Amino acid sequence: MTDQLTGASTELLQALIRNRCVNDGTPESGEEVRNADLLQTYLEGAGLDVERFESRPGRTSIVARIEGSDPEAPTLCLCGHTDVVPVTPEGWSRDPFGGELVAGEVWGRGAVDMLNLTASMAVAFKHLALHGPRLRGTVVFFGVADEEAGGTWGAEWMLDHHPEAVSCDYLLTEMGGWSMVGHDGVRRVTVNVGEKGIAWRRLRVHGTPGHGSRPYATDNALVTAAEVVRRLAAFRPASHVSEAWRAQVGAMPLPPELAAALVDESRLWDVLPTLPEPIARTCHAMTHTTISPNVAHGGTKTNTIPDVVDLDVDIRTVPGVTNDDVDRMLHEILGDLAHRVEVSRLQSFEATESPRGNELWDTLSSRVQVAYPGAELVPGVVVGGTDARFFRERGTIAYGAGLFSPSIDAASFADRFHGNDERIDVDSLGLTTELWLGVTEELLR
């Protein structure tokens, strides 16, 4: 049965990739209707009723349910998004939308983020409908649009307009499932329990227009903006060591002195430059509110000194940091330039986290033993964003999970996520499909 399920997940993943549901952030992009049609046809083959929800033309999400026998039993939602981020084909070794199976790996945009999970969830869900036992609890499959641009036309829209369709006690979605073996020989599988917040800001820098041929002592908004960017990049926010970060560091095979420094808020900034850059970036993002000035707009003409420059700044907050805290931080960074800069809020939400010590956590811990006897779960925090936050804000316990083969560790996962030559191995597809089946049957029986 394992080979059959693995094959089904592989074929469905290939088809999802080939549908090219690219979300570039504009409301008209995505065209998730193509993957919605595919998943609906696949699930209806098991006699399941599939509901369709369209937030705007082409932005289609689907929901299917297997009702439990006990209305008091919990509901579990398997939530997989159907859109992918844009791609630059020139950076790829293969067709990013070919969905090719090469040397045991499926290649293509979305293979890691997160069509592999969406496909395996659909296969497990269909198998439950056809062959599974009658469960006390209800299981929901949610194929959702627009995750890659913040969920406005997907999970957020669904919970605002059709909450009854996807309301649940527990939710499983991205990101998690990679593992590592520590010095003690124990394999630890990451399950993400929370994610950082977002506090995006636009900084409008003001100046005085003039002729570009007479630049001396002028009030050039672009020159001021350059200094603002320098100050943003140089700022050192306070370090924040969470319980999840302590657990992550404890699971890593690190020298004791380095491990101690990585969980010491007074030493973190000093140890970061000693680490390889990819590792330092992850450590920094996991332990700090991050500030990244990423977009600049300004000026009208080469020979005209600009009077306005807009800077869009990506700010990701650690737990406990509020919007007001961010505004105070920016005022501190700007210092004597604060009166020259108008700060406006673009998008914001605070960090979210689900507790452990519940039936879902215990069930995940039990089911990873099937593939990795003796393995332990370790909590993690997503430094980006997922649809889990919309559900956490409504009281649902939501985790980012999965189960990958030993060939997928944290570093390889991060490199392939939104990267060139994105791909996933077939073994991981099989392991994850079996995980969804096992968790659902054990949790809801």
Give an overview of the whole structure:
By secondary structure, the chain is an alpha+beta fold. It has two domains: 2-182 and 353-444, Aminopeptidase (3-Layer(aba) Sandwich), CATH 3.40.630.10; 197-349, 2-Layer Sandwich (Alpha-Beta Plaits). The chain contains 15 helices and 19 strands. The strands form five sheets. It has a six-stranded mixed beta sheet. Strands 8, 9, 16 and 17 form a four-stranded mixed beta sheet that branches. It has a four-stranded antiparallel beta sheet with strand order 12-14-10-15. A hairpin with a 5-residue loop joins β1 (50-54) and β2. The model has no long low-confidence stretch (mean pLDDT 95).
**Oligomeric organization of the protein chains:** single chain
The overall strand count is 19
Residue runs with pLDDT of under 50 for 5 or more positions? none
Q: What is the CATH architecture descriptor of the largest domain? A: 3-Layer(aba) Sandwich
Q: Using the coordinates shown, work out and report the CATH topology of the largest domain.
A: Aminopeptidase
Biggest sheet layout: 6 strands, mixed
Instruction: Trace the largest sheet across and list its strands.
Output: 1-2-6-3-7-18
State the share of residues found in helices, binned by percent: 25-40%
Mean pLDDT: 95
- Approximate strand percentage: 15-25%
> Which CATH class of the largest domain?
Alpha Beta
Any idea what the radius of gyration is? 23 Å
Q: Outline, from the CA principal axes?
A: globular
Number of domains as seen in the coordinates: 2
- Enumerate how many helices there are, as a single number: 15
Within CATH, the superfamily of the largest domain carries the name: Zn peptidases
Helices and strands: which structural class? Answer: alpha+beta
Distance between the termini: 21 Å
